[in-house]
Design a protein that fits this description.
With 62 residues, the protein is of the alpha+beta class. Helix content is 31%, strand content 13%. The longest helix is centred in the first third of the chain and has 12 residues, at 11-22.
């Protein structure tokens, strides 16, 4: 069970999920494509590290 579900892994979705997580809420991001796939090059640089192997964010493939 999640406290917050964010639909979309764009800059706004990741920001909302990040702040929900900071507040201690159990958060899930729902995205139809791979993270940052359709992000601009400027935004993509900020999104991709959130899903790295040492991140507390877990990316699960469909």
């Amino acid at each position: 069970m999640y406290d917050v579900a964010v639909v979309g892994c764009g800059i706004a979705g990741v920001t909302a999920a990040y702040h929900a997580k900071l507040e201690g809420l159990n958060t899930v991001i729902i995205e139809k494509d791979d993270p940052a796939l359709n992000a601009s090059s400027a935004a993509g640089a900020f999104l991709s590290p959130k899903f790295g192997p040492k991140s507390s964010w877990q990316y699960r493939d469909r």
